[in-house]
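Sequence only, no structure available. Ideas?
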Amino acid sequence: MPNLTQMELQNLRHLIGSHDTSYQKLNSYASNAVDPQIKQMFTKSAQEALTTKQKLLTFLNN
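Reply:
I predicted one. Tokens follow.
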């Protein structure tokens, strides 16, 4: 993989941070949800945010 420019690195860090924030918030919403369908929706969305964050982190580790 080619080296990332400073701008690309900054954007990547921003995206990772945003997905981490989304994961934390969605997990919190899921834990407070009463309706099982809403809880499942938040849990699924939180997992997707975590998966995306992990995929983005691979660009920093290469």
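The mean pLDDT is 93.
Hope that gets you unstuck.
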